[in-house]
Amino acid sequence: MAVLAPFLVLCAFVLEFHHVEATADTLSCLDSSFCLGELEVIYPGLEIDKCLIVQKDLRKKLTTLWKAPRINFSGADEAKVYVLVMVDPDAPSRNNPKAANWRHWLVVDIQGNALKKGEIEGKTLTEYHPPTPPKKTGLHRYQFMLFEQPPDTSVSLAEKESSSRGKWDLLAFITRFNLGKPVATLQFLTKNYED
User: Fold this and answer.
1) pTM value?
2) What is the pLDDT of residues 13-55, one digit of tens each?
3) How far is residue 98's CA from residue 101's CA, in Å, rounded to a whole number?
4) Which of 125, 130, 95, 92 lies closest to 109, judged by CA?
């Protein structure tokens, strides 16, 4: 029985550790695990190279002042082209994502040599729209996914996709152009700056 007690304490600690909820200072394990690769999203006063929650004092700037960020991928192959997607899977809220994968930005034909230097040289299919989570909807995830664009593939939005940013079927888009798994992903969480 004496051996069992330390084991139960260890199990309780491990189970508690794996169920950490996102707070003002921490991300859940699930949110932290989204970020893979060497993708960097660089705003004038905020460099993001790992999953994080945006500090309250930066939220208004992110929503109202800062334009499209610089994107850097040090792992880019200079001979390849890439597709960059930015979505909010929590629109209008994480508890009620009925407009999930609201498309904030979509750029295709991004040259690998430019991407390696933090430049986006490509064709914009959806202009950048800053994070604008509605009031009292809690934290929203803003996800960046970078895909290798298959050679000689012209990536575009269907007419129906072009007419609305909300309820975008990201999986269908990925499948239609054989994009496969992203080579790098990054996300940050933020909420309305007035909350």
Assistant:
1) 0.86
2) 333 333 333 344 578 898 999 999 999 999 999 999 999 999 9
3) 9
4) 125
Q: Are 144 and 83 in contact (CB under 8 A)?
A: no
Q: Which distant-in-sequence residues (6+ apart) come within 8 Å of 6 by Cβ?
A: none
Rounded distance between C-alpha atoms, residue 73 and residue 54, angstroms: 21
DSSP SS3 for 15: helix
> Which tokens go with 118?
């933090």
- The answer to whether 94 touches 58, Cβ cutoff 8 Å, is no
Sheet holding 102-111, edge to edge: 52-53, 184-190, 140-148, 81-88, 102-111, 123-126
Alpha carbons 36 and 19: distance in angstroms, whole number: 21
How far is residue 155's CA from residue 109's CA, in Å, rounded to a whole number? 8
Distance between first and last Cα of the chain: 51
Residue 139, exposed/middle/buried by CB under 10 A (0-12, 13-18, 19+)? buried
CA distance 189 to 23: 11
Does residue 177 come out as left (phi exceeding 0), alpha (psi in the -120 to 50 range) or beta? alpha
